[in-house]
Specification:
274 residues, globular
């Protein structure tokens, strides 16, 4: 008969009973959000050390926008529609779009890559006045990125959405860090302070990942589907806003080709893996 005081390793079931998620969930989420965070920091580092041409940034922005739209239209929506009515799906998508629209209109652009063409000379001279608003808006964006990366771990849709969603967000993080670093440098901030600002703002990606893990045990199956759809609505806003913002000001052929390449990349990745 075993000694009841004998130590035994905690099982995956015991961890789930106590915390609501497994150790594997925590590590998987940590790897994803740290990868996304590192890519954003790499973008900020590159833009602070070298002069990134607007043409290159425009190409990256459009490619990233295409991946976000691709993962929403071809992966998130088809998976969510199996669990939601058309009305519920439409409401969730609209709510995600509306949140980003309202924040971008009345606070600051939620996406630094999307804001690159809107950050005019007047703004650069008054950066201190808009710094708080920018941090709030970009913090919301990055928090939702982290939430999206962690939220699907226990959902039934994980196998289909997981890798493609990770790829889309990570691809988007590179021009995001590039654009944010470029905007800060254009405002006259030193290289080291620029890197520090990028690190602080993008750290909300890590916060979103932790928030997603914390909320999972309390969420019902319905919410586990509504939240990805809501985030998908935000992705649609980012994709449309970025592309049309660049189309109005720069080469249409470059933007359209890069955007289509981003969409096709997600479709190819999805069907190649699944």
């Amino acid at each position: 008969m075993p000694n009841r005081h004998e130590y035994s390793e905690p099982t995956e079931y015991s961890w789930r009973f106590v915390t609501g998620f497994t150790v594997g969930n925590v590590w998987e989420t940590a790897i994803k959000v740290l990868l996304a965070y590192a890519l954003a920091l790499a973008g900020g580092l590159i833009s602070s050390l070298t002069a990134v041409s607007h043409k290159s940034l425009c190409r990256l922005i459009s490619l990233a926008a295409g991946t976000l739209l691709g993962v929403t239209l071809f992966i998130i929506i088809p998976e969510c529609i199996e669990e939601l009515s058309l009305w519920s799906l439409g409401a969730a998508l609209a709510s995600g779009y509306a949140v980003f629209f309202l924040v971008s209109r009345y606070v600051f652009h939620v996406c630094p890559a999307c804001a690159a063409s809107h950050f005019d000379e007047a703004a650069t001279h008054h950066f201190n006045e808009i710094a708080t608003a920018m941090i709030v808006a970009l913090g919301l964006h990055s928090t939702l990125d982290g939430l999206a990366l962690s939220w699907g771990i226990d959902a039934e849709m994980t196998g289909n959405v997981d890798f493609s969603l990770l790829a889309a967000i990570c691809i988007h993080k590179v021009p995001e860090g590039l654009a944010l670093g470029a905007l800060l440098m254009a405002s006259g901030i030193s290289r080291m302070r620029t890197l520090a600002w990028v690190a602080v703002v993008e750290s909300t990606t890590l916060l979103g990942g932790a928030l997603g893990l914390w909320l999972q045990p309390m969420a019902s199956g319905l919410w586990m589907t509504l939240i990805p759809a809501h985030i998908g609505g935000g992705f649609i806003f980012l994709a449309v806003h970025a592309v049309f913002g660049e189309l109005v000001r720069h080469g249409r052929k470059l933007v359209i080709n890069s955007f289509i390449a981003g969409v096709l990349l997600i479709v190819i990745l999805h069907f190649a893996i699944h």
